[in-house]
Amino acid sequence: VPGKGAALNAISSHWFKMFREKGLADSHILDVPHPLVWIVQKAKPVMIEAIARQYITGSMWRSYTKGERDFCGIKIPDGLKQDQKLPDLLITPSTKGILKGIPGVPEQDDVNISRSDIEKNYEAFNFKSTADIDLYEKLLKEGFDLISNALAELDQIFVDTKFEFGYVKDREGNEKLIYMDEVGTPDSSRIWDGPSYREGKVVENSKEGFRQLLLKHFPDPDILLNKYRMEERK
C-alpha cells in the first residue's frame, strides 16, 4: 500500500506525543528524522499483547457464538449481540511470542492469558513488580480513553486495539514503564464509522476488510482463525 509505512508512523507518533503531553507515560521514540524513520530508545518489552475491547466483534464474537463466556478470566453474560458495546472496557491480554515454562500457559504464540496468570508469573512476563501490572492496566485504559475521545470528535468509534509496553532507563538509571511498538493505527486497531454504526451498518477503517476478503476465499477459514492450527498454515 503506497505510503502505508509513513502513515502508520505518523499516527503512532501523534498518539505517543499526546500520551506524553497529557502526562500518561513516555514512549520509546526519541526522534523522527524522516517519515519512515524512528530513532528509539532500546526497551525491554513486557511479553504481553495488551488488548483492550469496547465492543464485542471480531475474534471475540466468533468465540462467543461458539459458547465461550470466559475471556481471559473475565465472565461476560449471555444475550449479547454482534457489534454491541460492552458495559466496560475489557482487557484481554495474550502472550507476546512463545513463552516457555509458565504454568497453565501453552507454549504457543498469541495465547490468551488472565490477570491471574500474569500475577502468579509476573517475572516471566518481564514485569518488575506486581504493582506494575496495575500500572500497565491503568496506562492501557488511559491511552484507550484518550484515543477514543479524540476519534469521537470526528464521529469515529474506537472499537478495540492492541498496546505494547516495555521498560527503559531514565537519566538517573531508574527503570520506568513506557508505551512502545505502535498505537492507535488501523493495523493495530479496529475503528468504525460513527454515522454508519448508528444506521445499523459497520464500516471498518482498519485491516478487517482485507481479513474478511481472505477468509471468504480460503477453503477452510478456521485454519486462519484458529491459533491451535498453526502447523496447517505452512
UniProtKB/TrEMBL annotation:
UniProt entry keywords in alphabetical sequence: ATP-binding, Ligase, Nucleotide-binding, Purine biosynthesis
Domain SAICAR synthetase/ADE2 N-terminal, chain residue ranges per copy: 1-215
Q: Name one GO cellular component term.
A: cytoplasm
Can the keyword Nucleotide-binding be found in this entry's annotation?
yes
> Which InterPro entries does its entry note?
SAICAR_synt/ADE2_N (IPR028923), SAICAR_synthase_Vibrio-typ (IPR014106)
**Which EC number(s) are documented for this chain?**
6.3.2.6
Listed under GO biological process in this entry are:
'de novo' IMP biosynthetic process
- What metabolic or biological pathway is this protein involved in? Purine metabolism; IMP biosynthesis via de novo pathway; 5-amino-1-(5-phospho-D-ribosyl)imidazole-4-carboxamide from 5-amino-1-(5-phospho-D-ribosyl)imidazole-4-carboxylate: step 1/2
**Main EC class of this protein?**
ligase
Nucleotide-binding: is it a keyword of this entry? Answer: yes
The record's listing under Gene3D superfamilies reads: ATP-grasp fold, B domain (3.30.470.20), Phosphorylase Kinase, domain 1 (3.30.200.20)
GO molecular function terms attached to this record: ATP binding; phosphoribosylaminoimidazolesuccinocarboxamide synthase activity
Q: Which PANTHER family match?
A: PHOSPHORIBOSYLAMINOIMIDAZOLE-SUCCINOCARBOXAMIDE SYNTHASE
What's the name of the protein?
Answer: phosphoribosylaminoimidazolesuccinocarboxamide synthase
